[in-house]
Amino acid sequence: MATITAPTSPRTLPSTLKRPAVRKLLTLAAIAAILVPLLTTRWPGTTWPAQLTVDLTTPLTHTSDWIIDNRDTHPLFLYGLGHVSNAVVLSVRAVYLALLTAGWPGVTALAALTAWRVAGPRLAAGTTAAFLTCAALGMWVPTMQTLALMVVAVAASVAVGTVLGLAAGLSGRTDRALRPVLDTMQVLPAFAYLLPVVLVFGIGVPAAVLATVVYAAPPMARLTALGLRGADREVLEAVDSLGATARQRLLTARIPLARKDLLLGVNQTIMMALSMAVIASVIGAGGLGDRVYQALASVDVGAALAAGIPIVLLAVVLDRVTAAAGAGVRPVRRAVWVPALAAAAAVALAARLTGRTDWPTGWTLHIAEPVNRAVDWMTAHLYSGVPVVGGTADWAARFTTWILDPVRAGLLWLPWWSVLLAVAALAWLIGTWRTALTAVLALAAIGVLGVWKPSMDTLSQVLAAVAVTLVVGVATGIAAARSDRFERLLRPVLDVCQTMPQFVYLIPVVALFGVGRAPAVAAAVVYALPAVVRITTQGLRQVDPAALEAAGSLGATGWQQLRQVQLPLARPALLLAVNQGVVLVLAVVIIGGLVGGGALGYDVVFGLAQGDLATGLVAGAAIVCLGLMLDRVTQPTGRRTTKGA
Amino acid sequence: MSTVTTTPVFSVDGLWKVFGPKADRVPADPELAALGAAELRARTGCTAAVRDVSFDVRKGEVFVVMGLSGSGKSTLVRCLTRLIEPTAGTIAIDGEDVRAMDRSRLRALRRHRAAMVFQHFGLLPHRTVLDNVAYGLEIQGVSRAERRERAAEFVAKVGLEGMEHRRPGQLSGGQRQRVGLARALAVDPEVLLFDEPFSALDPLIRRDMQEEVVRLHREEGRTMVFITHDLGEALKLGDRIALMRDGRVVQLGTPEEIVATPADDYVREFVRDVPREQVLTVRTAMRIATAEEAGSGPAIRPEATVSEAIEAVARAGTPARVVDSGRCLGVVDAEGLLGVVAGATPPADAAPVVGTPSDPAAGSRAAGAAPDPMRAAPGQRREAPRPPAGTNAEQI
Fold it and tell me: pLDDT at position B65, please?
């Protein structure tokens, strides 16, 4: 059996040297042998040497002050950015007012009708139920605020993304220039985008919308370019052979052929926009995210849940409806939906005329209080002192003292150059010398920015969360790949989990574990798990069945098949799972700064809350560097094409 | 073949297509031009897909370009309308230089004069059958009502009535290719280009489609350039065949010439398994009639295949007369016919060896066309034991 898959490692020295991994490590060791003594004699000590840092606080504060002072007078703002800002505010307000004017009967009827038109009666019923639930939870107005912001942000993202995507799809040079930028933007945590826009626009709706656009446009651009490039060569050739002009070719062939990818792009953009619109409550987005943010700040789990449920419902409805539109379901005929549209308009008008656009107060469900009572009960009975298993707070405390603290202490105890060396080795072994170089430079930039300590704190949380995620995720993935029934049970759960915005995951962990670093890690694990499980399962299931059959026919046991055939063949998928796990974990660990996660995330929140933009910006830059470093370290040689979760 | 006249529709001379860096220098430099594929790649990093190809396509004929995959035939047909830009040489359509055309003239050429049918159909999946067929007209700017009306006519012509509103995804492979054919026909082109149109189809459907093409050609007499890798298809459809290998035309001639007198060992190997009796005409087996034979026995046309003659001779039990407009050209007997089937040399006193005399200019321009049949034949007999007749019946 072993002869089929397990390569026996050669013992002789020359053939060992021929293995690329060994060669890379030896090269690195040689470089280190020269550089490390030089560096340690010059700058002794284990933390990043102070001589090598650049203090950006002063210039950043100056810039920030200058912008604040000149925002109302300088021509750049008056004639350029000011117009952008005003246009955003005006359009968000217009959409918001339109939604309020339609009232809950009108909005619900229209939403249900749209869902029915593009996705069939089942989703229409689901949409109706979701909107009514939002209203019943007393969250109608915040829901409409979030929706208004979303409408404007999604429209702008789709427009920007399509233009960029068209450019990249039609010109190879633009594509090569744009692709690395978009790839990198996709792996950066949402929090990193907040501060630069705040610096320019100040806290408020324009900043929130623009941050959302910057975050949500890349998937649209990527998928548009992908769709245009993926068009069937022969179809395009046939179009040419009939003498089409460039315009005809684009409009009648390339764009229609890319329809599926374009709609998938819209779907992804909407989901990213929702995720960001909620997070942007930190910079003045208002709406549902703001309610969750305020509630979490005072550890009011009930109120957070009342605002969190509408977010989840909105996410699921938007995802399912746009996905169904992409799948090309056309269940309703014109003769049916035109009268239905009239009926919906009539409902809205009737409600308007009779003055029933506000949700009746008597119908509101006040779930905050009962939820808080339940949480209080949990605090009293489950947090600690449960015989044998201990309580959730005990677990969190133990996780912090036994895992998080030692890892953080270890990272800080290690000399800074050895951390760089380890990152270089890891990135080079998995990827190429380019990825290794980027990773090392990114990590060095963190040191230069003078935020080595908080960054190592964040890194320790990421490492702990990734370890837990991978152990649990890969195990679950293997189980799902081996049992169809388990996979069927798991699939709806994963579907829902993957559509939820990152922010929402903070609510249950705060209820269970209180605040601190452990809950932030727990939220990160829960957020990253679905993607890891899914990628692992798919990777294992896509292993060539012929190879498995061959192994089976030779009498391999299930375990042997898994270990010697499936796992080795699914290696690319497993590496991708690690990469995605790391990227997703980092995004949530940063947001964990809102629930006591500390470190870089806290610096950003602190900077925003105190108006100390310099601190926040430096932390934001460090987050970008950390994100880059972690992505490059785990990046397999062939760049992935799969969408991020 | 009766429709063939001497005006060439396409006239190709010294055509080269070289892929790779600085491709221009390869045809220009005689030393590089003479290199083999591997050496050329090693020396210059270039690949020559089409090498110094010349031929004429005459009005009304079916001109088949045949070769194995990688022989450059698909590149060649794309060069004709500059879907692939040729590297060197000249192409003329009705005497007009195609390579000198500017964009709008080239578009006009593609829109009105040459339409192409593709191997994998190249249909637009988001359009109905009718709109796919009307697409070429839409490109030309024909109004919606008119183009739909004309498209419906061609949908009917290729036998897809009632399927106008289906989408390509709902059709079988054969039906999709009928749509591709109708789309090409709808623009009423002067010449139809087929790029291996039937090789993605099942054998039975392929035969149907081949018959469809034969029927269309008979009805309309449209000029066709047909690319294929299937020798049976080439022999069945082609008035003349250009056989390509490694970018060069190794032989150009009628099906009968190719089968009876292969230009070199490659062609000989290629046509080895062809059931000769179904391709060669009775002229090959004919001898001068004696006086008594000239008066009796079944009469057959000179274009009749050997296979048909065998049937006639076997039924009558006597030699058959070859009669052309009432005049007896000669007779074929069982011995002569068997000789053809066996690949033996025809009797020395036989009438002209091959059927249709080909255009001498076109014939000599194709590399190595039609060498002396008397020299080629013995080699053929040595190397090629005849397969039992009927092994390749499906091809023909």
Answer: 93
- Tell me if B122 and A252 make a contact (CB, 8 A cut-off): no
DSSP H/E element including B192: strand B191-195
Residue type, B320: A
Residue A452's contacts (CB-CB under 8 Å, 6 or more residues apart) are A47, A48, A416, A446
Q: What is the pLDDT of residues A462-520, one digit of tens each?
A: 888 888 888 888 888 888 887 888 888 888 788 777 777 777 787 777 777 777 788 88
CB nearest to B124's CB, from A243, A245, A256 = A256
Select the residue of B106, B111, B126 nearest A242 (Cβ to Cβ).
B111
Instruction: Give chain A's length.
Output: 645
- Secondary-structure class of domain A390-421+454-629 per CATH: mainly alpha
User: 3-class DSSP state for residue B97?
Assistant: strand
Q: Are A48 and A452 in contact (CB under 8 A)?
A: yes
pLDDT at B344: 63
Which among A563, A569, A568, A564 has a CA at the least distance from the CA of A543? A569
DSSP A246-281: HHHHIIIIIHHHTHHHHHHHHHHHHHHHHHHHHHGG
How crowded is residue A8: how many other Cβ atoms within 10 Å of its Cβ? Answer: 7
For residue A230, give how far its alpha carbon lies from the nearest alpha carbon of chain B (Å): 14
Q: Where are the domains of chain A?
A: 390-421+454-629
DSSP letter for B358, please. Answer: P
8 A C-beta contact, residue B16 and residue B89: yes
Instruction: State the pLDDT at residue A330.
Output: 58
Residues of B with CB under 8 A from a CB of A: 78, 81, 83, 106-112, 114-116, 118-126, 135-136, 138-140, 180, 183, 187, 193
State the pLDDT confidence band at B364, using cuts at 50, 70 and 90: very low
Interface test with A, best of B110, B154, B177 (most A CBs within 10 A): B110
Q: Which of B124, B137, B142, B194 has the highest number of chain A CBs within 10 A, making it the mutation to test binding with A?
A: B124
* Contact residues on chain A for B180, CB-CB shorter than 8 A: 238
Backbone angles phi, psi at B29, to 5 degrees: -95, 115
Per-residue pLDDT band for B373 (boundaries 50, 70, 90) equals: very low
